[in-house]
Specification:
Blueprint lengths: L21 E6 L6 E8 L2 E9 L5 E6 L6 E6 L6 E6 L4 E5 L9 E3 L2 H29 L3 H28 L4 H9 L12 H14 L17 H12 L4 H15 L3 H16 L7 H12 L9 H15 L11 E4 L4 E3 L8 E6 L4 H18 L5 E6 L6 H10 L6 E4 L2 H9 L5 H4 L7 E5 L5 E4 L3 H16 L1
Parallel strand pairs: 1-7, 11-12, 12-13
Antiparallel strand pairs: 1-4, 2-3, 2-5, 5-6, 7-8, 9-10, 9-13, 11-14, 14-15
């Protein structure tokens, strides 16, 4: 059966025998074109090696550095067909393939490929039977038929799982055994929850066993197609989203990964990307922790100077506006050019918004914010400190927008060129750095002492948070 270019089914395990070489000899039904030796890293299919097919349909991939062990994909000329195969500690392999009968490819040179090919044939056959039983179940017209096909489906699944377990038991040191162990799904609790504590116990059980079969001290696991999705699901769905809980768990994983350099690198890169622009308010605390404990200590030597510059800049921008901390004072000018410091606003709650009159989203949100302010917040003595996020040369457009939309009752301010130049000359951070303003509109909620209690929220989220705070204060 023809196979289009796709991600390989499994991927690559580390081999530390620096004296070893690899040589993969391929013959195929092409007489020209480029062939590629590829592997997985996260969600990417990366090229390990390439070679030109000669007029006899042959191409050889070879090198003086051993390949990382795992499942590779031979991508044939035109990138329409690919063939998966195993690379273990034996790295002299011969592949004889024909795209008209790809499943019959001959792969010789290692016992691991025998296990792999036999497993593929077994699963392909069982897969067809499973599909048949599923379709028959959907067509069933009687309860007896449904029960029969459901039982057959379960039986086939059991046979596949038994096949995997047999490989694990009988070939415990093989690459296939390691992969099957890592592929196992976390066991689900069998106890039906009755009380809230039962539900919590089921959650803790599932979380405790989520990583069964995977060790964070093994570099090889990252070169599989299932590790990254499993990692994403754990931190996005299984883990509590509280920053302190995430930090504790992340430090635990990275501690184990210290003895596996590639795993450590993969994890720290992913954690950094995941939390540099967090999805939930307050999770920037996780990114700051990663910066302070790992990046700033020189524990990410693989990063380029440019990457470190970006990470460092983002960390310092986020450090200045953490939840619970006092917001930086802003001493900007109002529409008449008079100073209007943020800290001069006396109110139980202050909404700070950074916006741009040329921003399409701002053009929609600013009038909506004013409507909410007039309908609810104004009567409750909530103040709005609205900052022009652009340079002074946009002041006329800014004033025009304020005038046309009759935005009164706010403290509308901007930064003059003179103020900006003085900040730059004295090497002081500007309001964009202090409030991490990278998109507009950006909203903050401050309490009476000007502590940050809400940040980077949508207008509706800000209104919900503020209404909750106001109700709590009344109670």
């Amino acid at each position: 059966m023809n196979k289009k270019l796709r991600c390989a089914t499994f991927l690559c395990f580390i081999c530390f025998n620096s004296w070893a070489q690899y040589k993969i000899s391929v013959t195929c039904n092409y007489d020209t074109g480029m062939a590629y030796l590829t592997y997985h890293y996260g969600k990417n299919l990366n090229i390990e090696d390439s070679g030109k097919v000669n007029n006899k349909g042959a191409v050889v991939f070879q090198g003086n550095t051993p390949l990382q062990q795992g499942i590779y994909a031979l991508v044939l000329p035109g990138k329409r067909f690919s063939l998966d195969f195993l690379v273990s500690d034996v790295q002299t392999i011969t592949i004889d393939t024909d795209t008209t009968k790809l499943p019959e490819a001959k792969i010789t040179g290692s016992k691991d490929n025998e296990l792999f090919i036999n497993y593929q044939k077994f699963v392909n056959e069982k897969g067809r039977l499973l599909m048949g039983e599923r379709e028959a179940y959907m067509r069933s017209k009687t309860k007896a038929d449904s029960a029969l096909h459901e039982a057959n489906y379960i039986k086939l699944n059991t046979e596949i799982n038994k096949y995997r377990e047999d490989i694990i038991q009988n070939n415990s040191n093989s690459l296939m055994a390691s992969l099957f162990n890592a592929m196992k799904e976390a066991p689900y609790p069998t106890k039906v929850p009755v009380t809230r504590q039962d539900t919590l116990n089921n959650y803790y059980f599932y979380k405790q066993h989520y990583w069964d079969g995977i060790t964070f001290m093994d570099d090889r696991i990252i070169r599989t197609p299932f590790f990254l999705p499993k990692l994403e699901r754990y931190y996005r769905e299984v883990m509590q989203q509280a920053p302190d809980s995430l930090i504790k768990d992340i430090d635990y994983r990275l501690l184990y990964a210290r003895n596996a350099p590639e795993m450590y690198k993969f994890l720290l890169n992913w954690y950094t990307d995941e939390y540099i622009n967090p999805k939930y308010m307050g999770q920037d605390k996780v990114f700051i922790h990663l910066f302070e404990k790992y990046h700033s200590k020189g524990l990410t030597a693989w990063l380029t100077d440019k990457q470190m510059e970006i990470i460092t800049r983002r960390a310092y921008m986020q450090m200045a506006n953490q939840l619970g901390e006092q917001a930086a004072n802003l001493e900007l000018l109002d529409t008449a050019g008079k100073p209007k410091p943020l800290y001069n606003l006396s109110s139980d709650y202050t909404v700070v918004i950074f916006w741009d009159p040329n921003c399409g989203h701002c053009k929609e949100e600013i009038p909506r914010l004013d409507s909410i302010y007039r309908a609810s917040w104004k009567a409750k003595k909530v103040k709005i400190y609205a900052v022009l996020s652009e340079k002074e040369d946009q002041k006329n457009n800014w004033k025009k927008f304020i005038r046309e939309h009759d935005i009164t009752g706010w403290t509308n301010v901007y930064q003059s060129k003179k103020q900006a130049d003085e900040e730059l000359a004295s090497n002081r951070p500007n309001f964009r750095q202090l409030y991490d303003v990278i998109t507009t509109p950006t909203l903050y909620l401050l309490d009476k002492e000007k502590r940050i209690i809400g940040k980077k929220l949508t207008l509706l989220q800000m209104n919900d948070l503020l209404e909750t705070k106001l109700k709590t204060a009344v109670q």
